[in-house]
Amino acid sequence: MKLTKDQESHALALHKEALVVDFHCDGVLATLPDSAYIIGDAKKRTLHERSDNGHVDIPRLLEGGVDCQVFSHFVEPIYNPIAPHRMLQVLGYSLNEIEKSDKVSLVKNYDDIVANDGKRLSFMIGFEGGEALVNDLRLLKVYHTVGLRRLTLTWNNRNMIADGVTWQRSKGGLTEFGADVVKECNRLGILVDVSHITDQGLWDTLEASEEPVIASHSNCRALCSHKRNLTDDMIKALAEKGGMIGVNYVPFFLKDIDFAKLRGGDEEEKRKVESVTVETVVDHVDHMVEVIGNTDHIGLGSDFDGVPSIAKGLDDASKMPNLTKAFVARGYSDQEIKGILGGNFLRLIKKIC
Ligand SMILES: [Zn+2]
């Protein structure tokens, strides 16, 4: 990335001025004391204390100029038989963490986020997978009251709503209950999220939803063939319905990497992971712009703390200004950059929540 001194200070000022919104991180799961989901060598840390471990905590988000963070709340698969119970435990953890710090507050709508501008981090609740609904819409009402504003319909597995992306054998999309969940999200003001769903599930959701649909943390399949990514037709369809795509910083969703070989210690694959940088993230944004024709439906969905490895230059949440520098270097206008950093997602939060 080549930037003049002037461009660099312009980028930093622009980053500071912008309302930065990240639509997906796993910081709750990564810091939950009894989490069944262990990534890397994560030592014990909390959400409200600064750590050099993992990617996200409240101090590092504020350091990185993030204004609003959607934190995923996830039921680890071993807890699926008691999913609502487990989700209440995870939510209880988050609400306690929020209470411990005056640098963060729970937000439920656009005005809450704007009121926090420059004062504290806006904590928005997202669910990654609808397992905690079991098959009862009344639970969705309860979760909405607690603060749920983004529902990722599935994680990788099948649930009562739809099939997840690793559940390919059944070739399934949205269930009848799933269509009801989408409609109830529309009614309550919860953003419907298709990251992690099967291809058929994505098309079914676009059909069932009366409101725009988002893919909170997915990239372009044209550049990286992982099934978690979106085809050009999907990108176009999400944008045409007024929805959003959050660009993801995880190497596996940015470049084609052979997992089996990587796990076996293959040096070539390790080098590929190492070669993924903030520039690769912007390559995916460039492609989305090419497909959509403008930047209005693109935002951020870091996936911080979801996977141990992350694009170089975005090593943790405090490094977020590097992304703005990369956008400036790539020639995006101030207006476009502010939109991608958060303005575009805020427009949708204002409309839906
Ligand atoms: Zn995810």
Brief account:
With about 350 residues, the protein is of the alpha/beta class. It has helices at about 5-15, 25-30, 60-65, 85-100, 110-115, 135-145, 175-190, 200-210, 230-240, 260-265, 265-275, 280-290, 320-330, 335-350, and strands at about 20-25, 70-75, 105, 120-130, 150, 190-195, 215, 245, 300.
Distinctive features:
14 helices; six-stranded parallel β-sheet; TIM Barrel; three-stranded parallel β-sheet; globular; 353 residues; binds zinc ion; single chain; alpha/beta
Explain the overall architecture:
Helix 1 packs across helix 13 and helix 12 crosses helix 13. This protein has one domain: Alpha-Beta Barrel (TIM Barrel), CATH 3.20.20. The longest helix is centred in the C-terminal third of the chain and has 19 residues. The strands form two sheets. Strands 1, 2, 3, 4, 5 and 6 form a six-stranded parallel sheet that branches. Strands 7-8-9 form a three-stranded parallel sheet. By secondary structure, the chain is of the alpha/beta class.
